[in-house]
Amino acid sequence: MLHLIFCFALILQSSTKAQITEPAKTTISATRKRFFDFTEVEENAEAFIINDFEFIFVYQRLTAAKAYLECIDRYYGHLAILDDTYLQDEVARALSETRLLFDTLWIGARMKPGLDQWWWGNESRFTEQLNQTFIDKFEYVTYPPDIDPPLGIKAAKRECLGFGRRNHVTPQFRPLNCKVERSYICQRPKSFKEANSTHKDWIKVHNRLYKIYYDQVDWTLAYLWCYRKDPQADLAYIPDYETSQIIGRHLLIGRPSLENAWIGAKWKRDAYVFVDERVALSNTSDDSGYPPWRNGTIRKTNGCVLLDRHLSNITLFVPTSCRRVRPIICSKLDVREKKDYWDIIIGEFGYRIYFSKKSWENAKAKCEEDGKGRLIEANKTEHILNLLYIMGENKTAVQHIWLAGRYDMLQDPPVWTWVYSKEKIVKLNWWQNTTYTEAVERANVCLNMDRENHIEATHYGTRCSFEQSFVCLWPAEQLKHKIRTEKEIRTTPALDDTFR
Ligand SMILES: *[C@@H]1O[C@H](CO)[C@@H](O)[C@H](O)[C@H]1NC(C)=O
Ligand SMILES: *[C@@H]1O[C@H](CO)[C@@H](O)[C@H](O)[C@H]1NC(C)=O
Ligand SMILES: *[C@@H]1O[C@H](CO)[C@@H](O)[C@H](O)[C@H]1NC(C)=O
Ligand SMILES: *[C@@H]1O[C@H](CO)[C@@H](O)[C@H](O)[C@H]1NC(C)=O
Ligand SMILES: *[C@@H]1O[C@H](CO)[C@@H](O)[C@H](O)[C@H]1NC(C)=O
Ligand SMILES: *[C@@H]1O[C@H](CO)[C@@H](O)[C@H](O)[C@H]1NC(C)=O
Ligand SMILES: *[C@@H]1O[C@H](CO)[C@@H](O)[C@H](O)[C@H]1NC(C)=O
Ligand SMILES: *[C@@H]1O[C@H](CO)[C@@H](O)[C@H](O)[C@H]1NC(C)=O
Ligand SMILES: *[C@@H]1O[C@H](CO)[C@@H](O)[C@H](O)[C@H]1NC(C)=O
């Protein structure tokens, strides 16, 4: 009993944080033999297999709606459908071996909106109605007939279903208000497990994840292979030299170690192209060494591209016949990578607001990274208004941003100038700068825009080394194009187009 209380205390304590602390885990595994073969999916998620499915306990408290989305987005599964007693018993047993002993976890059943019926499934697909015998076993606070329940509790809507354990390992179903935050159970097909791959986990390089499979297939099958293994993955996209070398190294250090493997590039009309990303490769390597063609240039056309580490001391892109059978490298974007910007298209302008803060110089460089973006020359009233909307009324509120203006001290007298067009800055609603001495002015030469009283703009020069948010500008079409390439929206090109 003492021991139980100890566990409880640990769990209560840790429940105030999203993640469960290590001691609880140690306590439990030290005192119970674990019968299920759990694998740690992430720091706060562990998985086990029952029949053809992998079930994942995720120790992060979310509303039912968010848990539902996280299952899809993060684990490529769905909230667990526990529609048979064997599953229910097994999951309850597994639960008893985790740090979540006493928790309620969201599963994939809910009241159909507007109806007084419980269904397995989700808003987009309800699969099976729960029968009354089952619903009668639900556990929730009820008041006996002679006590009038408090209004709030009487009106409580319990429309989402939680799963827990009663006594030792008896499954219990607990209807709850969908808005309360609970951990959850995701479910996905077992075959998702990475059979025949050279590394246990995905290999992360920048914002992409890679996986190498040692099965040998021709390029066409390799192309289908990746998204059959994982709907989010494609035959590998290798966007730069560094990535090619890192993945080359992993070909070597994996088990088994491999000499080469297919990546997603194939000859199309007049260039090698990463098919899914629609990125055409140059015929010759650039100064960075990319694409890493042998001897810096393509020799063969009409082939498919292998990433090959054994022909030289650097890893190369080697065009070869698409019919050869070779291992496969898949890749996908790391969805866990937090996007630190937000795009807004307004009319002919494409704005990208960055939440990560940078000095003026670094902000400018970030905007210009692709050669086409710019810090904003707010030389039109329209820009100022758009910026106010973006800063104050859209996704996130931002107080200060950098603009592309500088106090140009090389001119006599010094003058505020737009850095790209070199135009003098004329009509901005400047902060009264009468109190400024020339010395103050000279130390504050980068143009800042502030939002005051919700939607009033003020502009003034400030220290360039301050780190603050910024907005970059592209012509709308260019930003849209950029978004498309970044997202790498899967296009399923007509077969004859892809495999010609
Ligand atoms: C809803 O759940 C089903 C499983 O019952 C799943 O296959 C489907 O992908 C889910 N819908 C969405 C939009 O995720
Ligand atoms: C109701 O559902 C439970 C569990 O899903 C099942 O065991 C039971 O046989 C069902 N009862 C009826 C009458 O269909
Ligand atoms: C793994 O490779 C073996 C042969 O090496 C093959 O028979 C098997 O189907 C592969 N498994 C998967 C899941 O691809
Ligand atoms: C690349 O090489 C192919 C075949 O030699 C040629 O048709 C194509 O025009 C070249 N592309 C460029 C941009 O030079
Ligand atoms: C690349 O250049 C080396 C010498 O610099 C030469 O021996 C080799 O044959 C060349 N490889 C190809 C594929 O042309
Ligand atoms: C690879 O070898 C060549 C000559 O064989 C050498 O010039 C080059 O520096 C080497 N590159 C690396 C990355 O070791
Ligand atoms: C306004 O800025 C844009 C680019 O930022 C520039 O092309 C244009 O010439 C400027 N217009 C005026 C009137 O200064
Ligand atoms: C932000 O602005 C864009 C463009 O007007 C709009 O489509 C989007 O819905 C807005 N987002 C929010 C959260 O207001
Ligand atoms: C701010 O004051 C300084 C010094 O009085 C003056 O030279 C400068 O033009 C003023 N700046 C603006 C933007 O009005």
TrEMBL record:
Give yes or no: UniProt keyword Transcription regulation.
no
InterPro entries named in the record: C-type_lectin-like, C-type_lectin-like/link_sf, C-type_lectin/matrix_domain, CTDL_fold
Positions of the C-type lectin domain = 50-187, 205-331, 346-473
Residues in the signal sequence: 1-18
Q: Does the keyword Signal apply?
A: yes
* UniProt keywords, alphabetically: Signal
Q: What is this protein called?
A: C-type lectin domain-containing protein
